[in-house]
Amino acid sequence: MTSITPARPRLSLYLAGVMALLSPTLAFAGEWDFSGSVAGELRLFPSAPAYMNQEKMTLSPSVALEMELVYEWNDAADRLTFVPFARLDADDQNRSHYDVREAKWLHLGDGWDFVVGLDKVYWGVTESRHLVNIINQDDAVEDLDGEDKLGQPMINFNLEKDFGTFSVFVLPGFREREFVKQNHRLSGPVRIDASRATFEADSGNEHVDFAARWKHVFGDWDVGLSHFYGTSREARLIPIQVDGETILAPHYDQINQTSLDVQYTSGATLWKGELMSRSGQGDRFWAFVAGLEHTLYGLLGGRADLGLLVEYLYDDRDPLHAPVTTADHDIFAGMRLALNDTQDTSVLFGGIVDHDNGSTLLSIEAERRLSPNWKVELEGRFFVNIDAADPSHILARDDFLTLRLLRYF
Question: For residues 65 and 94, which has the higher predicted lDDT (pLDDT)?
Answer without folding.
Answer: 65
